[in-house]
Amino acid sequence: MSAAMDTESTYSGYSHYSGHSKKAHRQGRDRHKSPRSKDGSRSEKSVTIQTPPAEPLLGNDSSRAEEGQDDNWGETTTAITGTSEHSISQEDIARISKDLEDSVGLDCKRYLGLTVAAVLGLLVFLTPIAFILLPQILWRDDLEPCGTVCEGLFISVAFKLLILLIGTWALFFRQPKADLPRVFVFRALLLVLIFLFVFSYWLFYGVRILDSKDTNYQGIVQYAVSLVDALLFIHYLAIVLLELRQLQPMFTVKVVRSTDGESRYYSLGHLSIQRAALVVLENYYRDFTVYNPALLTASKSRAAKHMAGLKVYNVDGNNASGQSRAMIAAAARRRDSSHNELYYEEADHERRVKKRRARLVVAVEEAFTHIKRLQTEEQQKAPGEMMDPREAAQAIFPSMARALQKYLRTTRQQQYHSMESILQHLSFCITNNMTPKAFLERYLNPGPTLQYDRDRWFSKQWTLVSEEAVTSGLQDGIVFVLKCLDFSLVVNVKKIPFIKLSEEFIDPKSHKFVLRLQSETSV
């Protein structure tokens, strides 16, 4: 437990240092910018929102500060504690309130659709039963006796209703995966068809049976059976439209993330644009690596540094065209040499990553050598020295904590891995007798988005941008965009081409060969 407390103090010192180093860096940058704030840029308004440490957008400043640190930063670091400051603008408050209103509207629309579907489904299942019971209640004495065939129809209605109930539960009563901007066209058409169908049956029943008080009870039961049969056929139609129609691949979509250009290809069937967007998002969380804005910070800062040229001033109206041309040429030469800087920066970064990766691998392998799984007979010998997986993880974690921290900082992954998540993963690996390589796989190879903590990557709302109606089907050449707060997914749709295959028969007896001998050969 003391080792775990030391680990927590190490992590707390690391977090306080990174937070206050960012604050000092920001204050120093503001002091350098303060002389320029007195000119004509006073009318511009800027608001900075500092997000909590658990948000995924942190790590940009810490990654820049890491570039200037040496390998012995842990021994020469002073931890300063303090409180964090947060600011929010009126525009953000208005945006938050608008998002709340939109979410309330979406909830109302969703519950309204569920209520309508539930009421219609209840009406469908009660209608055949009502057709059979109403004559027994209203004019029971005038009805003809129900024979053997009529009683057999009761069993048929009961089992058909049970099959219809199970099929409806399996097809329609599912947990909704998303709130779509528009209604599902095929589902709405099926609801309208069922309503018109049941309404027409009730209308015929009221005119021909209730008004005339028909005494042929077997015919009434047969009428109810025909209704149940028709409902079963509508259920088959729903399976074809909602499930089977989209199974055959007809389109290939290319999904590109706008920030880093990572792309994937998927095959889709006949779907509307909004449902295709839902399939793309489901596959995105599974296939794409987690979005890490810290990896883009270095390239953006480097591009801004090299794009900033030399400023030329005309003092007292003197003509300085020759000097200006010379200074512009010097700036162009400096930009031309930027590829050398990029090459050496990337080479140095790869060298540092490889070195810290090697240190991490060695530290984890040494830590795992101190853990031994006790067998059943060994557990009875030394009960005082046994530990559960959580305690074992806390015992060996301090020996690898420093190497893991430095590696995560170098690869800019520190915002996605908290100490608690690392301990949970370590105890999981110890419980399942996994090797050090299996433990390191999560940190050495950036995994899919679903691998990380949900609060660090999940976007609660996506915006679908399309020139076509989102309820229309996919077509060749359609492009739509899925936007969230930090990035967007650009989806390009291409139709799978028609493939024509021809057949050519080869007789197995035609495979005959002749050995040709030449004078130069050794045969």
TrEMBL record:
Listed transmembrane segments: 111-133, 153-172, 184-204, 224-244
Keywords recorded for this protein, A-Z: Cell membrane, Membrane, Transmembrane, Transmembrane helix
A GO CC term assigned to this protein in UniProt: plasma membrane
Record carries keyword Cytoplasm: no
Segments of skewed composition (Basic and acidic residues): 36-45
Keyword RNA-binding: no
InterPro entries, per database record: VANGL
Ranges annotated as biased composition (Polar residues): 74-86
Pfam families reported for this sequence: Strabismus (PF06638)
Composition bias type Basic residues, residue spans: 19-35
Membrane topology: Multi-pass membrane protein
Residue ranges of the region described as Disordered: 1-86
Intracellular or extracellular location(s): Cell membrane
Domain of life: Eukaryota
Family the UniProt entry places it in: Belongs to the Vang family.
Cited PANTHER family: VANG-LIKE PROTEIN (PTHR20886)
Name of the protein in question: VANG1 protein
Gene that this sequence comes from: Vangl1
